[in-house]
Structure formats: structure tokens, C-alpha cells
């Protein structure tokens, strides 16, 4: 019965009401029905859905037994790459990102979502792309950002040679089987990584993940 109730709630979120109806509010974000509808099959996820989901992951990471997670929003990387550290210096005002275990950087490449993950415990920067493209330059951009951020905020020099940068290969992570699931892949990569779990899902899980995310965003709670 619970599952049926959840299913009917998810269907209702897609079906009834006006596009501008507000379905969820948290993390200084407002999610409308129009935003939620990007979670329908074969739709591209928008910034609001991506940022809200990252907010849910960060919230969960405050619980005991989870690595401490910091997530940048989806506009961070494009701003950093088009300016420099100076252009995003204020984004971490009052926050020491180095006190976290994992930093998530969702990256929007015009019409494709990818994810960059900094593991401060292991000193690794990994790039996750469900279309299998390499992101070595993105890893380098983020390492340079971390060096400047560390110097500026903590007066500590990072030793670049101690860091490992790696673009995940197609044999290491699942790959999307259509042109629209990249955003869901990014959210689920981030979900598994922020629990220190191996990434074991497949493209077949995507329709289920999309519906699950609708419920989670509306209820502001990860299942």
C-alpha cells in the first residue's frame, strides 16, 4: 500500500496542476511542477533539480556514518572556467571546503551533465561521464582551484604532485543508453559516492531512479 501511495503521488506530480505550482522548497531553491516534469522519461534534468538533489545529498551527509560532503552548484564550474579563482572566491565565504571528505562538482557542458569528485581523504580528483568522454582538463582546472583556495583561505600550499587525477573509463562506470539520462547518472554517481558505495547501477535502473527522485524531492528526504 505504501508503494502504491508513493506511485500515485509521483504520477500526480507529473499529471495534474499548473507548471508554476510549487512542489518543494529547501536549500534556498524552489522546485515547480515544470521542474519536476524534467524527471519524466527521456527529459533532460534542469539546474534546479540537479542542485536540489545535491542539497539532499549534503543534508544526508550530516548524519553519523556518512562521509562529510560539500557540493558546488551547477553554475560553479562554468563560472570558474570562464574567469578564475577570483571569479568564484566568494562562493565559499564562511566555508572551509577542506574540512569535508568529498566535494561534488556537477559540470554542465552545454547539453550534457557530468560529475567531478574530489576525495580529500585520498587526494584524488575523478571525472565521471556517462558518455565516456575524458575530462582531464576539468580535473586540472579543479586542482588549480583547490591550490588557490587552500593558499587563500588556509595559507596552506597544496602539493600538486601528491594528487591523482583520473577520468573514469567506460569499463569502470555505467554508461547511458540514450541521449537524455546524463543528469540522472550524475545524481546517482553522486549518491553512491557520497555513501562510499561502489557504483553498481545500470542504464536499466534509470526509469526507476527518475520516479524515486520525484518522491525524494517532494518530501525532501532520500529513500
Automatic annotation (TrEMBL):
UniProt domain Ubiquitin-like protease family profile: residue ranges: 29-193
Single Gene Ontology BP annotation: regulation of macromolecule metabolic process
One annotated GO molecular function: deSUMOylase activity
Alphabetized UniProt keyword annotations: Hydrolase, Protease, Thiol protease
Cellular-component GO terms for this entry: nucleus
Family to which the UniProt record says this protein belongs: Belongs to the peptidase C48 family.
Protein name according to UniProt: SENP2 protease
Source organism (scientific name): Lanius ludovicianus
Amino acid at each position: 500500500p505504501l508503494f502504491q501511495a508513493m506511485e500515485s503521488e509521483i504520477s500526480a506530480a507529473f499529471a495534474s496542476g499548473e507548471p508554476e505550482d510549487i512542489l518543494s522548497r529547501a536549500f534556498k531553491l524552489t522546485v515547480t511542477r515544470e521542474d519536476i516534469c524534467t524527471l519524466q522519461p527521456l527529459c533532460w534534468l534542469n539546474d534546479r533539480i540537479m542542485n536540489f538533489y545535491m542539497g539532499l545529498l549534503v543534508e544526508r551527509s550530516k548524519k553519523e556514518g556518512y562521509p562529510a560532503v560539500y557540493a558546488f552548484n551547477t553554475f560553479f564550474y562554468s563560472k570558474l572556467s570562464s574567469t578564475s579563482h577570483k571569479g568564484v572566491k566568494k562562493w565559499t565565504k564562511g566555508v572551509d571546503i577542506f574540512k569535508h571528505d568529498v566535494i561534488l562538482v556537477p559540470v554542465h557542458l552545454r547539453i550534457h551533465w557530468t560529475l567531478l569528485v574530489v576525495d580529500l581523504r585520498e587526494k584524488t580528483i575523478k571525472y565521471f561521464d556517462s558518455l565516456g568522454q575524458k575530462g582531464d582538463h576539468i580535473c586540472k582546472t579543479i586542482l588549480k582551484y583547490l591550490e588557490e583556495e587552500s593558499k587563500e583561505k588556509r595559507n596552506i600550499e597544496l602539493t600538486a604532485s601528491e594528487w591523482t587525477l583520473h577520468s573514469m573509463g567506460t569499463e569502470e562506470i555505467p554508461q547511458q543508453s540514450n541521449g537524455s539520462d546524463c543528469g540522472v547518472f550524475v545524481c546517482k554517481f553522486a549518491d553512491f559516492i557520497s555513501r562510499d558505495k561502489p557504483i553498481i547501477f545500470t542504464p536499466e535502473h534509470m526509469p526507476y531512479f527518475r520516479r524515486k527522485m520525484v518522491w525524494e524531492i517532494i518530501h525532501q528526504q532520500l529513500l
